[in-house]
């Protein structure tokens, strides 16, 4: 079968990948759509640095990945069930499903993110865990269902903030993560949602997804133009956190959702003096994933404006390059 893999820092297409065979508790699925995530782009360029940083972490499993071999990726997917493993109870063949990106096997649990052996969503077929499957309801399209995973990231950040509807929110950065946060804030009934980004295209999308006001930080600091109670940092670049601590009003809650891979410097004095609470967030839990699918399927979140491109497997490499431009794309879907 065919799959797009990372090889020597470039996405190429292989047509000789063995078709996965489902074991007990697993299903074989045909991938219908898979979103390209910013973390995939970063791994393609900075995979060695990410693995080195991960190896320094205590309390979390090491990422056992060999960059000299092909790397499978793709964790924002929807798929159609083809077959189930021995003795496995699963929805009927032909059912459109999505799932948290985890594969359970007799050998343990493998995240479907980066792997030399576990095939991800940039492939014609892949394996999923039957107990984790969520049938896609309400006739929702495969392309829209594939955005369940990134929208769950935004919902998790909002849930962690404990924001109340009457509190003002400022979202710094309107890439896919920031946009997902804005959608989740709107879903939660937050009455004042302010979005800040240098890109006019991204600011326009922020309004479409639920922001009440947008600000251009090139004109003036967003903190000179609004007084939020909760700030969501969704940029992930060095210096952003410290700038928020320096400029934000006293007593805010800062939720850091942007993944900065470089060393950064902050002045604790800023946060101490203003009594700022800082919450770092990552990923989501299974209930947030299910809630995001339900919200999309019931029309409470319209993800259609986020989808700015669709490519086949042979175009994944070019799409990785195109996504470097913030004015061209928000979310590109791969349809194998």
Characterise the protein shown here.
This protein is of the alpha/beta class and 336 residues long. It has 2 domains: 3-135 and 303-334, Alpha-Beta Complex (Quinone Oxidoreductase, Chain A, domain 1); 150-280, NAD(P)-binding Rossmann-like Domain (Rossmann fold). It contains 9 helices and 18 strands. The strands form 4 sheets. Strands 3, 5, 6, 9, 10, 17 and 18 form a 7-stranded mixed beta sheet that branches. Strands 13-12-11-14-15-16 form a 6-stranded parallel beta sheet, sandwiched between helices. The N and C termini lie close together (11 Å).
Shape, principal axes of CA atoms: globular
Q: Total strand count, please?
A: 18
Helix content: 25-40%
The CATH topology label of the largest domain is Quinone Oxidoreductase, Chain A, domain 1
What is the name of the CATH architecture of the largest domain? Answer: Alpha-Beta Complex
Put simply, the count of helices is 9
Low-confidence stretches: none
Beta-strand percentage range: 25-35%
Rg: 20 Å
- Could you state the order of secondary-structure elements as H and E? EEEHEEEEEEEHHEHEHEEHEHEHEHE
- Give me the CATH superfamily of the largest domain: Medium-chain alcohol dehydrogenases, catalytic domain
GO molecular function: oxidoreductase activity
Pfam family, one: ADH_N
Protein name: Zinc-binding dehydrogenase
Organism: Mycolicibacterium neworleansense
